[in-house]
């Protein structure tokens, strides 16, 4: 494919543009897009260009792998950081049920596996915080008992955080 022959020089991008390459076009029998190839080659510059031109971050190939899997398989921390920052799905699984983190760990790219684990942890914390925040304003619209329990847990955490300790060990709530 033409993408593999390009250098990081602007002339390489010009050749791609002149050839009329589309960002989500399937490049081979394995259903790999130019974003897959850029991530698999560890070419963050070309991956960024693909993402800026509308490449599908989560497009899966024949093996069920997205660009995040390809970057993890070659240990490209730069490509992984770019994909995570662009909101690629960290939990996406290939046909063997493996996430990008699983692949990085299995192939010995411990820094990449740690990065993905940390990114997933941060993403989960943000989701939990958003869930607590979104439920705090609409008590009458809660659909189930589990949602009510979650709201109460969030509310009780907030009220505990508002309490202050006096020097004598007694708690008081500011007015």
Automatic annotation (TrEMBL):
**Record's SMART domains?**
ANK (SM00248)
**Alphabetized UniProt keyword annotations:** ANK repeat, Repeat
Show the Pfam families listed in the entry. Ank_2
Which N-terminal residues, if any, form the signal peptide? none
What ranges does the record give for the region Disordered, renumbered to this chain? 130-158
- Each ANK repeat occupies one of these ranges, namely 63-95
- Spell out the Polar residues composition-biased ranges: 130-148
What PROSITE patterns does the annotation carry?
A: ANK_REP_REGION, ANK_REPEAT
- Choose one Gene Ontology CC annotation of this protein and give it: cytoplasm
Which protein is depicted? Ankyrin repeat domain-containing protein 37
State the species of origin. Answer: Phrynocephalus forsythii
Instruction: Give the organism's phylogenetic lineage.
Output: Eukaryota, Metazoa, Chordata, Craniata, Vertebrata
